[in-house]
Amino acid sequence: MAEIHKGHHTSTLELGEIAKKIKPNKLVLSHILFWGSTPDEIYKEISSVYDGEVIVAEDLMVIN
Description:
- By secondary structure, this protein is mainly α.
- It has one domain (2-56).
- 42% of the residues lie in helices and 9% in strands.
- The chain contains three helices and two strands, in the order ααβαβ.
- It has helices at 2-8, 12-22, 39-47, and strands spanning 27-29, 54-56.
- Strand 1, helix 3 (39-47) and strand 2 (54-56) form a beta-alpha-beta unit.
- It is globular and about 30 Å long.
- The relative contact order is 0.23.
């Protein structure tokens, strides 16, 4: 099952590289497969590549 998800989902480092190229005002993460990682670890992995604002969304979160 993990291999199927890996083949159809973007990794944190890939996402950081994509965000680095397109430079969004905010990078909001949802529909996250944590695979044993914490939200903080996900944030740190993306931030190691991308220096913009990163938000790990939570249920019912409102983002302005």
